[in-house]
Amino acid sequence: MSQSKHVEARELMYSGALLFFSHGQQNSAADLSMLVLEALEKAEVAVAEDLLENLAKVFSLMDPNSPERVAFVSRALKWSSGGSGKLGHPRLHQLLALTLWKEQNYCESRYHFLHSSDGEGCANMLVEYSTSRGFRSEVDMFVAQAVLQFLCLKNKSSASVVFTTYTQKHPSIEDGPPFVEPLLNFLWFLLLAVDGGKLAVFTVLCEQYQPALRRDPMYNEYLDRIGQLFFGVPPKQTSSYGGLLGNLLSSLMGSSEQEEGDENPDDTPALLRPPLPVLCLWVRGGCGRHRRPVLRDRARRPWSVQRRGGGGPSDRRALPGRVAFARERLSGVSWLSAERRVTLQPPQACPVTDGARAPGASSLTFHECGTQGRGRGSPAGPGPLCPVLQPGAALEMPW
Fold first, then answer.
1. Window from 51-65, 128-142, 251-265 with minimum mean pLDDT
2. What parts of the sequence cross the membrane (predicted)?
3. Are 255 and 282 part of one and the same domain?
4. Cα–Cα distances in Å, from 357 out to 279, 318, 329, 398?
5. Helix 199-208, helix 182-196: angle, nearest 10
6. Is the peptide bond preceding residue 178 cis, with omega within 30 degrees of 0?
7. Cα gap 140→154, rounded to integer Å
8. Residue 123 has pLDDT above 90, yes or no
């Protein structure tokens, strides 16, 4: 068949599909739409703006819940990539993202925006997504995921545009930089660091903003990839440090530092740890309950919590972890049941945060109660493994 006949047949099928869509004949319209794609593939037609717009038009008319739509978009993206195995033409991704945005399918729209070059459109969609579906405490996380994923795709310009547009247009974000939200400040510094390409700057950023980065475990995976792409960090390997910061430290200090890390497994960066229960102290007194983060030393090292009483070696176990309100690893501590008496032993002398200090050592009574989950506020009463002092009792530490 001649080239002109191919074009004529394709246009006829496209017009027929639109006609079927206008009369609600979804199945027949979908069949003709697939034939349009087949004609494009067999004739090896080059990608053109008008063809991409036609495919996006057909996509917008398909039933969002139909399986034919999934097959159509997959095949259309494959054709638009030229058979090179890429993820599809950026312009087609943009048109698909705009259609899905109108349908309020924000999740799939975000995916297609990521593979387009429309950072501004992505930011506007994310603002609507955040304000209509998200919590106020998550405004920074919507843009953080997009910025990090754009960088993983080596699209620095779109990452910068989506960050700038989102922070300027979101009604819950104050003018910046700097911003109130630490995660937004991290993204701002990260985009500047990517332009500079200095590994030391990237390392310091990841270390200083660990509390903000712990909010989503995937941030570590994204930063691993970003470190490889822009800062020359070696590919992820198993090491005593583990993950992103392990690679950074390996590249900066060599294997000798890793051997030292084996002796202190608690130096594993908190960024790489999963969310952990909270160990805190509640003091019952005449004026009510007061939470006091007494389990902390100046070096921010863990305190050990040991059970008192006979029963063999298994009765003495330490809870590793480091304290910023005493986040501890509490796996394998079922022996700490109700009314156990324990002694808190700091690895070095330091004052209690409220200034109280007394000689000698004392025991505390632990009570079992609920847990404090990720993203929630402080518990209304003693939390898991919370030592409770009776009114008038004093907490004494051995220093």
1. 251-265
2. none
3. no
4. 20, 23, 27, 9
5. 170
6. yes
7. 21
8. yes
CB atoms within 10 A of CB 122: 29
- Note the pLDDT of residue 235: 84
SS3 261: helix
pTM of the model: 0.60
pLDDT at 53 over 60: yes
Q: How far apart are CA 53 and CA 81, in angstroms?
A: 15
362/369 Cα distance (integer angstroms): 22
d(Cα 262, Cα 260) in Å, to the nearest integer? 5
Q: Which domain holds residue 126?
A: 3-265
DSSP 159: H
Residue 97: which CATH number?
1.25.40.10
In terms of domains, do 342 and 399 share one? yes
Q: Looking at the structure, tell me whether residues 335 and 207 fall in a common domain.
A: no
Q: Are residues 247 and 148 in the same domain?
A: yes
**Same domain for 65 and 210:** yes
What are the percentages of helix, strand and coil residues in the chain, rounded to 5?
50, 10, 40
E strands within the chain?
281-285, 288-292, 304-307, 321-322, 327-328, 341-345, 364-367, 386-389
Of residues 140 and 381, the one with the higher pLDDT is: 140
Choose among 163, 170, 155: nearest CA to 184. Answer: 163
Q: Is 311 within a domain? A: yes
Q: How confident is the model at residue 50 (pLDDT cuts 50, 70, 90)?
A: very high
How many domains are contained in the chain?
A: 2
Residue in this structure with the two tokens 């332009």, named with its chain if needed: 195
Over residues 360-397, the pLDDT tens digits come to 333 333 333 333 333 333 333 333 333 333 333 333 33
